[in-house]
Amino acid sequence: MDFSLDEREQDLVDLCRDYAQREIAHRAPLAWEEARCPTDLLREMGALGLLGILVPEEWGGIGMSTIGFVAAMEQIGLADQSVAAAWQAHATIGSLPLYLFGNDAQRERWLRPLAEGRMLGAFGLTEPDAGSDARGIRTTAQRRDGGWLINGRKTFISNAGTDMSFGVTLLARVESDEGSPPAYASLVVEKATPGFTMGPKMRGIGWRGLDTRELYLDDVWVPDEHLIGDPDMGLGQFLRTLEVGRISVAALSLSLTQAVLDMAVEYAGHRVQFGQPISKFQAVQFKLADIATELEAARWLTYRAAFLRDSGQPFQKEAAMAKMKASRVAAWAASEAVQIHGGLGYMLETPVARFYCDAKVLEIGEGTNEIQHLVIARQLGC
Ligand SMILES: Cc1cc2nc3c(=O)[nH]c(=O)nc-3n(C[C@H](O)[C@H](O)[C@H](O)COP(=O)(O)OP(=O)(O)OC[C@H]3O[C@@H](n4cnc5c(N)ncnc54)[C@H](O)[C@@H]3O)c2cc1C
Question: Are 83 and 26 in contact (CB under 8 A)?
């Protein structure tokens, strides 16, 4: 199997490397420190075409392959994880429900500004009482006056509350016939809709630049044009969207692992103890060799999942494997890299500490790793 990049993909990677090193690497840490979403950077990324990376040109994007997206993510995430997290949430779960399941009028109205980088997209699934168990959501959408009346609450929703946010595509439970299984609809709620409010930006231990909030929906009415597809297809749409999101979180995890590996190699090469650089100690060398090997294994799984999607083959199992493996490697590698830095690695003045804080959520977001186990086991016939 050949995962080498074609010319267009390679050009994109070069552009991302340049931009990430020139702009993101020195501007994003300040936003992390101030716990502020750096929409200035996201707007610039929009101008470079990156916000519509997976959306075809016809709808304002650049129509990049999934492999190209993964390779580009490796460059952006190397510079900063919050920016890369906001970008990946926008480009996958924030935009794809509209592209994959919306009609042309909806794509024109909401997807185009997202893909052209003028607005930021958000995906509203999780609720205080329903995370892993998506079927347990309580937000309801009732047919009313030629539209939908939405009531409920969402939590941990990324990208909904910035000065670039357009609103949210959310999942709500709709009334189904007695005795039938519950039905779920995807609906677009724009930011200024009466009854739609948000809590303050939540404070995570990492991804501090990412805007994540609670959303409140009190008698929010939207017309029928805001319904994406059939009113009973929403859950399937959301779950399919998450499959792509998992490849993207896997790619983000690769970038984190590469970042901490580079930092650890560099530090070990110049930190002297017992009269020699600590990289001369076999215990340190083994840690670095293990990280490099695990990173390569995770990289192959991730590129393979991307390759399967690009070639129109089923990729659900592989996306779950990639996400599970790559995030686990990232969280472990970040801890090992801090260990190699000793006390300095614990201090937030050192970049490796910031990446360590950013690592844990990779095992939680877009389906916890326990849920990835379930997805894989189900595909094995269990
Ligand atoms: C920074 C951040 C950003 C996020 N952004 C978004 C977003 O933009 N949109 C959105 O909709 N959501 C978002 N989320 C929510 C995220 O997807 C959920 O946190 C995640 O799916 C887990 O749900 P939960 O937190 O309710 O945990 P729970 O589902 O309550 O799980 C708690 C624990 O129980 C385990 N568990 C649950 N069920 C099982 C089972 N059947 N078998 C074994 N173990 C199980 C879980 O693995 C976990 O360890 C975000 C979360 C974070 C932290």
Answer: no
Among left, alpha and beta (phi > 0; psi -120 to 50; other), residue 167 is left
Q: Which atom of ligand 1 is nearest to the CA of 89?
A: 8
Q: Determine the distance separating the centroid of ligand 1 and the alpha carbon of 155, expressed in angstroms.
A: 10
Looking at the structure, tell me whether residues 245 and 326 fall in a common domain: yes
**Does residue 365 share a domain with residue 290?**
yes
Residue having the nearest C-alpha atom to atom 9 of ligand 1: 157
Instruction: State which residues form the domain around 66.
Output: 7-115
CATH of residue 77 = 1.10.540.10
Q: Provide CB contacts within 8 A for 381, sequence distance 6+.
A: none
Helix (H) or strand (E) holding 35: none
**Residue showing tokens 């969280």:** 331
Which atom of ligand 1 approaches the CA of 371 most closely? 47
Q: Catalytic one among 58, 318, 366, 370?
A: 366
Q: Report the predicted TM-score, pTM, of the whole model to 2 decimal places.
A: 0.97
Active site residue 366: yes
Q: pLDDT, tens digit, for every residue of 182-224? A: 899 999 999 999 999 999 999 999 999 999 999 999 999 999 9
